[in-house]
Amino acid sequence: MQQLSKTSLSSNTMHLQGHSQIVGIGGYVPSQRVTSQELLEEIGSERRFGIAHDWLDTVCGIEERRIAPVDSLPSDLALEAAKVALEDAGLVGRDMDLIIFCGIEGDWSEPATAHRIQTELDSKAICLDVSNACHGFMNGLTIADLHIAAGAAEHVLVVTGEIPSRISFDVLQMLQENEDLDILKKKIGVLTVGDAGGAVVLKKNKVT
Question: Closest Cα to residue 179, out of 53, 52, 47, 57?
Fold first, then answer.
């Protein structure tokens, strides 16, 4: 169990005050693996751009990434991670007072993707989504901490499910059709990411 103390968080740029502690952590990655070398071979990086097929491995240290099935939703990955986090915390969905989904892309615009997490976990929790690119999950932790501090929640589940591979494969197709090195330099970062889910369970910090 990892505790978020007032001392460790007082200078944090998220301004968490340490009202809560993490009591459960969960992660999930799909089974399909795609290597970096496979992606660069797909665009013919050596022949067309003069970039070795093992460039992402040697320069970025990224050898592979996980890819979700085509019909997957962000909530699918988040749910798997949530189940692990709840088990780690020794709690169930009905124990949650608030569920926050923090993915860059949700299942739909409205209602909140957190509602599907709520339904699948047989929970009665209040639900909301937070979207703020890479900062979203940390923002979700801040909101969870403040709800707990205000006495509005005892247990909070913060989850995310990300499927950036959809964008990666669009960029891959673009690079297959274009030999502009400047475009490759601007877009190659998209080829470094993979699909995954993550979750934490927070509760009131009893440590003073």
Answer: 47
For the segment 42-71, what is each residue's pLDDT rounded down to a tens digit?
999 999 999 999 999 999 999 999 999 999
Q: Which of 22, 19, 24 is nearest to 150 (CA)?
A: 19
| Predicted TM-score (pTM) of this structure | 0.85
Please give the CATH architecture assigned to the domain spanning 6-204: 3-Layer(aba) Sandwich (3.40)
d(CA 27, CA 32) in angstroms, rounded, equals 16
In angstroms, the CA 146 to CA 15 distance is 10
